[in-house]
Amino acid sequence: MLSALSNVKSLQTETILSVWLILPAIAIFYYWKWSRSRTVRLLNAIPGPKALPVLGNLLDLNVYNEDFYKDMGIDWVKMYGPIYRIWLGPRPIVILASAELVQKLLSSSKYCTQSSDYSHLSSWLGNSMFMTTGTHWKNRRRIVRPGFHTQNFDSFIDIFNEKSSMCAEEFERIVEAKPDTAIDVTHLMTKCALNIICETAMGQTKQETEKEVYLNNMERFCQIFTERVHRPWLSNDWIYKMSSLRRECDRCVNALHAFTNKVARDRREMLERCTNNYSDHFPNSVIEDEKPHLTSRFAIVDRLIEASSRQMKGYDTTSVAMAWFLYLIAKHPENQQLIVDELDSVFSGNRERPCTIQDVPELKYMECCIKETLRLYPSVPSLMRKLIQDVELDGYTIPAGVTIIPIFYAIHHNPCIYPDPEAFKPERFFPENSNGRHPFAFIPFSAGPRNCLGQKYAMMELKVVFANLLRRVQFSVSDPAMSDAAEIGMTLKPKYGVRLIVSKRLNKV
């Protein structure tokens, strides 16, 4: 009996040992087979950092490193050229860092589609335009595009003026309470941008507490998205669902949905009330004549409700641009003074007059400073695309299914396009200095068929906000060596905020 039991245990031990020997053998065989596949051979022909077995370049890629984009967009481009590959474990990524290569990729949708990484956003954005491709995407874009027509800007500019003047007043109150004290301007600029988008893109204002909750949940959701992209094991839905990140993400998404659903519901109710009230007092002929004027102020939100009630990311990119702009003009007071001189000329020294549609194109030097800000710190520094067919780029064949990352940050910091690329030089964008520049050399709003529909809206918003701010307050730095480290995420935010000294602008004698 004891002998039989001993034999059984021995057999079990041998079986377990056999399994532990067979499984590694199978894994090694499949790794060997995969490493000799066409995809791997084609990708390893592309220059790039040496990859470790299984891990790839994961140890080289630290998203919490302050110099992450400088490493990938400047140092590695110098080492490997304008096209190079990295491995996130067994997953290949191809980086594009030249205007010519990015133009070929983005100028036509026949080469690529949205990367599967963006599926991590689906719990929030659902079936919105950002998430779709093909005919569905074209239909959504067609619905949304009229909301960004320039004919709607007349109604938007009143909101831009109102909210930016409120922001200037808040800065003035802070100056009176805490003169000569450095404050973090990022929160105030974020609040200003969100106030604007709430009214122009949603037709209403919201309580401060509601907006604070929304901002906090949005920021955390984006952080989780970034972690999933850069940690391959979290891309596995089974592993992700078992993690605490999933539970935290669900909480954030539920809060975001509650906010946007309430906005859409309130907006529909308001439009119905306005229509009913108007029809009670005027004949049908007058209603038809005035209908365009009644709804023009809220053209974007009406169409976004049709397309999706979850299109709220726009405030984030503009608020980031606002913070970096103030950082740069504070560090370069001579450029700030040139902007103020232009404002004094356009507004005849009037610090209170609202900015008009006619004023906006006259702010030429300010526009150059905004563009130079977006060159140095593009709000969206890169994007991800998935190849739907083999593509020949710079002599290399990149197989279908591979993720491509065009890094706008790298193009904007290319010394062959922009000499002394780390310097703040708004004159780069003077007309005489921009002639002949590659059309994809400056693409802070992306480019090609999927470019940002709101880029004219954003530029106008930035001009009006800065026109109202800089006529009333001025910005300076307490520490000229303050960090410009960026937080890696969906947008290029200042990692440590932007602490500036704000003071009232003195009237000229």
UniProtKB/TrEMBL annotation:
Q: Quote the SUPFAM superfamilies the UniProt record gives.
A: Cytochrome P450 (SSF48264)
- Which residues are heme-binding? 452
Q: Which InterPro entries match?
A: Cyt_P450, Cyt_P450_CS, Cyt_P450_E_grp-I, Cyt_P450_sf, Cytochrome_P450_Monoox
Record flagged with keyword Kinase: no
Q: Which residues form a coiled coil?
A: none
**Which Gene3D superfamilies does its entry note?**
Cytochrome P450
Annotated localization: Endoplasmic reticulum membrane
Q: Which GO terms describe its molecular function?
A: heme binding; iron ion binding; monooxygenase activity; oxidoreductase activity, acting on paired donors, with incorporation or reduction of molecular oxygen
Which sequence ranges are marked TM in the entry?
15-32
Q: Which UniProt keywords apply?
A: Endoplasmic reticulum, Heme, Iron, Membrane, Metal-binding, Monooxygenase, Oxidoreductase, Transmembrane, Transmembrane helix
Query: Pfam family of this protein, just one?
Result: p450
Cellular component aspect of the GO annotation: endoplasmic reticulum membrane
What cofactor requirement does the entry state? heme
Q: Which domain of life is it from?
A: Eukaryota
Which PROSITE patterns does its entry note? Answer: CYTOCHROME_P450
Q: What is its main location?
A: endoplasmic reticulum
Signal peptide positions are none
Q: Which PANTHER family match?
A: CYTOCHROME P450 4C3-RELATED, CYTOCHROME P450 FAMILY 4
Q: Which family does it belong to?
A: Belongs to the cytochrome P450 family.
Task: Please give the name of this protein.
Answer: Uncharacterized protein
Query: What's the source species for this entry?
Result: Daphnia sinensis
